[in-house]
Specification:
Length: 112
C-alpha cells in the first residue's frame, strides 16, 4: 500500500494514529484516519473510511522503525508541517509538499 500525502481540502476533524496490541494473538493493528471513522472501524463497521488499516505480527512497527541519525524526520517531515500551521496561506502548500514528499517516501515501509 502506497501512501500519498497531498492536501486536497482542509480536514477539520482530528486525525489519529491508533496502535492496538493483542498479546494473546501476537498481532498489532494500525489505524490512521478521522477520529469518528476509526471508532466506527473498531466497532466492526468495515465500510468506515480510514486512511490505513493494517494488521500484522506484534512488534513489527517497532522493529521496522528507522533510525534517524541526520534528523531528517524533524527537518523534512515534522518541522515543515508545524510551520505550515503557523504561516500565511500562500506558504502552506509549499511546506506541506516538502513534508508530503518525505512522508510518502519514508512512512510506507514502516506501516507495511
Amino acid at each position: 500500500m502506497d501512501f500519498e500525502f497531498v492536501r486536497h481540502e482542509p480536514l477539520y476533524d482530528r486525525i489519529l494514529l491508533v496502535l492496538t496490541l493483542d498479546r494473546q494473538k501476537m498481532k498489532e493493528r494500525i489505524l490512521i484516519g478521522e477520529e469518528l471513522q476509526i471508532r466506527f472501524r473498531l466497532q466492526g463497521y468495515a465500510d468506515a473510511e480510514v486512511l490505513c488499516d493494517v494488521t500484522r505480527p506484534l512488534g513489527t512497527m517497532l522493529s521496522a522503525f528507522e533510525h534517524d541519525p541526520d534528523g531528517e524526520w524533524n527537518r523534512l517531515g515534522l518541522i515543515p508541517l508545524r510551520e505550515s500551521l503557523h504561516s500565511n496561506r500562500w506558504k502552506q502548500p509549499e511546506l506541506e509538499q516538502v513534508s508530503g514528499d518525505f512522508l510518502a517516501k519514508n512512512i510506507s515501509p514502516v506501516i507495511r
